[in-house]
Amino acid sequence: MTVSDLFKTMAYGPAPESPDAANAWLDAHARQFKLFIHNEWVAPSTGDYYDNFNPATGDLLAKTAQAGQKDVDAAVAAARAAFEPWRTTPGHVRARYLYAIARHVQKHHRLLAVVESMDNGKPIRESRDIDVPLVARHFYYHAGWAQLMESELRDYGPVGVVGQITPWNFPILMIAWKVAPAIAMGNTVVLKPASYTRLSALLFAEICAEAGLPPGVVNVITGSSKAGNMIVKHPDVDKIAFTGSTDVGRILRRQTAGSGKRLSLELGGKSPVIVYDDADLDGAIEGLVDAIWFNQGQVCCAGSRLLVQENIADRFLEKLRWRMGKLRVGDSLDKNSDIGAIVDQTQWDTIDGWVKQGAKEGGVVFQPDIPLPEKGLFYKPTLITHISPAASVVQEEIFGPVLVAMSFRTPEEAIELANNTRFGLAASIWTDNLNKAIDTAQKIKAGSIWINCTNLFDAAAGFGGYRESGFGREGGKEGLFEYLRPRWEARPRPGYNVSDEERDAALAAWARTIPGRPANGAAPMTDGKLPVIDRTPKLFIGGKQVRPDGYYTRPVCGPDGAVVGQVGDGNRKDIRDAVEAAHTVAGMWAKDRWAARAPYNRAQILYYLAENLGAREEEFAARIVTMTGRTAKSAREEVAAAISRLFSYAAWADKYGGTVQETSLRGATIAANEPVGVIAIACPDEYPLLGFISLLAPAIARGNTVVVIPSEKHPLSATDFYQVLETSDVPPGVVNIVTGARDHLAKVLAEHDDVDSMWYFGSSEGSTFVEYLSVSNMKRTWVSYGEPRDWLDPAQGEGEDFLREATQVKNVWLPSGE
Length: 818
Ligand code: NAP
Known about the structure:
Layout: H1 3-9, H2 20-28, E1 32-33, E2 35-37, E3 40-42, E4 49-53, E5 60-65, H3 69-87, H4 91-107, H5 109-120, H6 124-152, E6 156-158, E7 161-165, H7 171-184, E8 188-192, H8 199-210, E9 218-220, H9 225-233, E10 239-243, H10 246-256, E11 262-266, E12 272-275, H11 281-293, E13 305-309, H12 310-324, H13 345-360, E14 364-366, E15 382-385, H14 392-395, E16 402-408, H15 411-418, E17 426-430, H16 434-443, E18 448-451, E19 470-471, H17 476-480, E20 484-486, H18 500-512, E21 539-541, E22 544-546, E23 553-557, E24 563-568, H19 572-584, H20 599-614, H21 617-628, H22 632-652, E25 658-661, E26 667-675, E27 678-682, H23 688-701, E28 705-709, H24 716-726, E29 735-737, H25 742-751, E30 757-760, H26 764-773, E31 780-783, H27 794-797, H28 800-805, E32 807-815
Parallel strand pairs: 1-5, 7-8, 7-10, 8-9, 10-11, 12-13, 12-17, 13-16, 15-16, 17-18, 18-32, 27-28, 27-30, 28-29, 30-31
Antiparallel strand pairs: 2-3, 4-5, 6-20, 11-19, 14-15, 21-22, 23-24, 25-26, 26-32
Helix pairs in contact: 4-6, 5-6, 5-8, 6-7, 11-12, 20-22, 21-22, 22-23, 25-26
The structure holds NADP nicotinamide-adenine-dinucleotide phosphate.
NADP nicotinamide-adenine-dinucleotide phosphate (NAP) is lined by residues 165-170, 192, 194-195, 224-225, 228-229, 232, 243-245, 248, 251, 266-269, 300, 397, 399, 425, 463, 465, 469-470.
């Protein structure tokens, strides 16, 4: 080819990045790596090693250790020993260490990028220009939080020893997202990287030591999923932070249920890219290329579902096919490669299996006629059209360079299709109409929304999912709380600690326990002494007092065992009705939805509840005395605190909407604290009115709708509250109350797929099962493990912890400029 030919075709040749420095580093370790514990390289007790290959060339890069139980124990012990000194190291000193790590990451920028691309197969342009700069950014950003912790987060302390398990798609970046906030907040870490991509984690370990990080603060254990599981089950680990597939996330939720360990899960996705007919189509095409072919589509938030408006669909897809024909698939160390290698043969086979499945399901598969390198694990960019929204390739995460495309007619249809998924990680919206963009952004259930852009990340904005994409955030101030615990709260160490098999058996028994139910449905007598008092409050569902489905009632006894009242004994059907009622007014889809009401209006309603409760203060106090036998003074104190709490959340109703995040985007990144949806609440027995109000009020203040199970022992404060609700303009369906056997009803709620979060303040056994059963739809949970809380103390009974549980952060990215 002559120079003039080149000018005509504009073709360009390879621009390879040198692997020399990476090879020298591997050689310096004789291409064999041990485990990094207490800042020392330690041979694995198993004696086993694993081969790590370069997927672009098939070359063996190095052997890495396979940790066993002894090694995990040693790493946890090192982290435990380092915890106290690290926790008490002044924030400024910790900040200096994080700053040093950031500087050393920058110093080794090129080496890190090349090692990452060789190990994972991703194009060097991405590891060099996106992944590694973001790693440094995360350490700088969190150095700032370490510095500010003592002044800005003084009511919080670290969680303890944290087990962190990361995936292979962004190996070094996921490590930074986890390690930086953890150590900034005074925790110590045992990290296990994914098997396919261990090398950058080992290089990072070396960087930590080089930066002078004290021994034991960060320990890196390489090993199989079994080693990961040993970390998860280790009794001396206080928190698990996991990024990976939803299937494994489910396993970990079950395994940690009832242990008192904190858990954050960053899981899979199937994110939509919505292109409206008024979008800049060329811009949208470039956005789409980035959304789905960045990192070979092996991205949790990959824009893998294209939704394009019908009247432009043909033109848009034609442009897309043309653009796909221009993508360069090739060597990951070539700076001109757009798409690199797939991480491993197993993943390649999975992707190919999905593409074949798409064809079987009636999809039309398009792959451009572009060359692939002769060896290495490369896969062509793929587009599947003519496919139904219910097809498995539309519903399941493929985790490869495969885009499925569908069309829509109206914005309502676009939103419905976008939300027609069990995931909720991200979405990107393309339109020149700002009103439509923001309206769509508000209605999509996902943690990150990019308007006229895609795949933007920054340490200052939390990343994480809704629904089965997991819970917890990484980055931003919101992400810090994953690694913090209120100072007053010790790590719960619940007494209920059983094996998986014992748990299954106990679960069956637990579900059968419905204490107090009379055998024949007749109004029960307690001990034969007293006739039942003839006043039975019903359930409160959809704004009405309704009879329990089974017509059963249950007695409420005072401290001396005498019956002081009756309540309805709710069952599974009642719970289902209550959840349905809560759903009809949840969300922001229409003006009549609770979350769509102006915050000022919600605040007014909470003040009105306080006002109406205040008018009946004596009556509520008397009821507490009757049920609990406490003194009138103590009961009055409880009612007064309940009124004050309603005032608190009336105040918070319009003061917790979110912030503008200070990311590196030119424009605005808006963090909206959105409601979670339908929250199920099982109330504690202590403080029958205050416990109930302390949980109900933050949930509804922040726009959630609720299904509440009042105290099982003392439910009459909640049933008396029906009348307060009825006279305070609370819309039907916002608050639903089902009395009955708490654990029996909690089980139904924990398993219910339309409940978005479950708060359980009861026994340690019940807490275990709520966490265990929540995997049905990966709902969020907040449980007490049987630990009592002083509801009268504002530090324990109200505040930002409650608001955080009542919200989830959605970051909306709005670029500015032409
Ligand atoms: P994965 O199979 O779930 O593995 C993730 C990590 O968990 C690996 O380190 C793995 O070890 C380990 N592991 C597997 N089974 C385990 C078990 N039973 N107990 C403890 N640890 C276990 O996921 P992947 O294939 O590496 O990553 C792809 C997935 O990650 C996708 O679903 C993607 O969407 C998700 N992801 C999510 C985010 C996010 O922020 N939401 C970001 C990136 C990726 P081995 O490698 O040794 O098996």
